[in-house]
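ping. complex inputs:
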Amino acid sequence: MHVTMDQEGRFLTLHAEAELRFHAIWLRDNAQDTETRAPGNGQRLIALRDIPDNTRIASVEAGETMVHVTFAPEQKSVAFSVEWLIAHAYDIKARADIGWLSDEISVWDAGLQADVPTAAFPSLSEDGATLAQWVEQVARFGFGKITGGPIQEGALFQVVDFFGFVRETNYGKHFDVRTEVNPTNLAFTGLGLQAHTDNPYRDPVPTVQVLYCLESSAAGGENMVVDGFACVRRLQEETPEYFDVLAQYCARFEYAGEAGVCLTSRRPLIELAPDGELIGVRFNNRSLAAVTDVPFDKMELWYAAYRRLGEIIDDPAMEVVFRLEPGEAFVVDNTRVLHARKAYSGTGTRWLQGCYADKDGLRSTRDALFRSTQEAAE
Amino acid sequence: MHVTMDQEGRFLTLHAEAELRFHAIWLRDNAQDTETRAPGNGQRLIALRDIPDNTRIASVEAGETMVHVTFAPEQKSVAFSVEWLIAHAYDIKARADIGWLSDEISVWDAGLQADVPTAAFPSLSEDGATLAQWVEQVARFGFGKITGGPIQEGALFQVVDFFGFVRETNYGKHFDVRTEVNPTNLAFTGLGLQAHTDNPYRDPVPTVQVLYCLESSAAGGENMVVDGFACVRRLQEETPEYFDVLAQYCARFEYAGEAGVCLTSRRPLIELAPDGELIGVRFNNRSLAAVTDVPFDKMELWYAAYRRLGEIIDDPAMEVVFRLEPGEAFVVDNTRVLHARKAYSGTGTRWLQGCYADKDGLRSTRDALFRSTQEAAE
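pong. complex structure:
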């Protein structure tokens, strides 16, 4: 490996397939030696205030797989693996496209119908590889199904145990969705709900929802999911200014439907990271409050964009439909994938239990399982 | 009240102290009649798809306190209160300043030392007005203290019950911070920690933290809090490009210090809403991972900004210090206020229990208590 440094010691250049530059201050702050990072948990032991402001590279020496850097004025030598440096290179062209997505994510439409990420409950309990694959798919597609689980109250908590922790809310640790479908109320329950994300009036929103079926004797009532990221990217392709106006201005959401509760939030329908990564979608006609943060001269555009987004969400070409039988469940990324229930077409009962959880646990489980697989293979 | 409409029926103008225009589509979507909004819980019963695309104002009639609008083509008449319209007016100049703050928030520095928001545990349990005032202050200042609580394990959950729900994590429903301070380890525990926000490697972060004291026989070990919003606004005043670079690029955080856990996040140190509202600060030297989303030509600027922000955070002029005695606790908004522990100066033991919760519950409790006070007064 060939490595050079600039005359002032401000940065070094790794001459790999591309030329990758790394600043002295960045290298020093990211040193992996045991005085900088705790060997056990990897947490940094020093703060930036412990690193001299005038830190520079005094000398650099390259081996086959390691680069040895001596920093001045500390006169401290640290070794970096070339592999680690290449993996963490930042001397690369920044993404310029608004609405870009992480490689961990794949968008989908109705074409995913035949490939719904599904795993059997007993396999998830017993087999780390099945769990690893399933959580990877749930993180990738934003939803996943579980079959063959116990038909008993509270079994949904065992689903959460696979990857995280329940987020309790004013609705409880869990909530019950029971429906008696008979000719008298068929018309009403037959109305269905527009696909939506749950609880956008909460901040932070619950980032994962679990719905677990315990009874299902009524025909119909299928569950439907729509990829909110696919929908807003289609909106962006059709009419870029629609995407932009929904990302640039905050909407408001509210729920004050029970005593002691007055939940409000101010967030955009399309949420971007500061560098344009698409990181969240909120869509819920029932709890959208009066939108007051869009200026007068943009309000008609905002409403046109909101209407078109709703039409895309309602387009059957975007939806994946599945039916939950007793002992089956689905998990949904509530920052991305919208869900709804289809109309019932026969009499009977339906009983689901639902709860909220968080996505960081899902991603952590995925990465920890991947890491342990890698370590086992080494 | 004088109200006019434009020739096409696209909007009406309320001639109040200022002229306030409201679009037909906005008015129709925000109608408060019982066909549009559920009388019980206030949730919207229709979606935008149920409102004609070519909705316009057919006629408008103004009374003293109400405005009656008839919409075409539905031929639907809806009454709006003038008070509600003025409260929800959006025909106003948008905020142009980056880093603006909601009126609900007051920034502070060491000057708040004598006025730490504090309430007695028994009063919070028994007196709605005390609870209302305390949660308003915690939401406003981002932290608050409780005195006179029970000295028993798990009492911190009673603190959470005042306003919300515990956010369980891989650290459990709660965690214990026990310190034996003696001459042998005094030097080590005396190191102290730089002020930080907790768990920035989680996404969503736990937005509230509770720390509850059960034992405190060692001298020193005071708790210290710093207003992250005040710090980043000071950074902005001193060097606007420092503020901007920390807001425009994502940092990365990681914690993989125990089996089965690999938590990672990609978020900026300074988080803004799309319209520039300051909504979050993340600062934690221990769990900052290699920052790879800042381009090469901005990295030295980013590090200079990060260093200066750390210096401001370390400035005693920014900090409020208090000591927790057994039965005392503090609550902190973990999206805004940094906390730390000062060094110990004597031998003894110290035992705190901590847990996480969420801010939406805090704000909901505040607003619900305010609403019930208003209703009682009417």
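Chain B has two domains: 2-87, 110-369.
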